[in-house]
Amino acid sequence: MVDFALDDSFTAPLPPELREVEPFCLRARSRLFPGPLDPAQDWEQFGCHKIAGFPPEPEFLAKASPAAVLVPVVRREHGLSIVLTERAANLSTHAGQVAFPGGRVEPGENAAQAALREAQEEIGLAPSHVEPLGYLPPYFSGSGYRVQPLVAVLVPGTEFTANVNEVARLFEVPLAHALDTRRYRRGETFWRGQERSFFILDYPDAYIWGVTAGIMRSFADRF
Q1: pTM of the predicted model as reported, rounded to 2 decimal places
Q2: Would you list the DSSP string of 59-121?
């Protein structure tokens, strides 16, 4: 079961690229990278450090561990939605946080293979139900990962089965909500000796912040 909530802003008709799969795919493919950026060519170096407003240490970027996430977009009655997870409370890291399906890139894998494998393990998403569209710029997390987001659409009728050992629940955010930059605000925290800021995407019944909100804001800025 996927939780879903609408707020009172969804009263006006949505543009085709936020309502229908084909217009969305056309627009997304024109704005996303066709393949992952090589670290040596990653001129944006977008991530927690940039949002926080301070330069990262050179070794931070050089030593960042590769990770990948899937940004799954699905067609619903109201329009298009992004599927997210809430991590299980028993996990040793990031317990209870909102996240995309994803994780570490294992030896011998590329970013797409890792994102699809993790999505299958976490939410039971069959790779055959996924149509990749392109990649967002890598996102450097404060915890030391170079996260490669892969945006994809899911075939009609796709069903999910959450892995209860990793996922507490699945829910969806309307694409129109996620891609509206006015929905984002800044939060502040003191971490590792410095005051740091991060993005928050306000949404009913979910606290979407940090890396996940940063990736979604990157998508909103590019789309």
Answers
A1: 0.89
A2: HHHHHPEEEEEEEEEEEETTEEEEEEEEE-TT-SSSTT-EE-SEEEPPTT--HHHHHHHHHHH
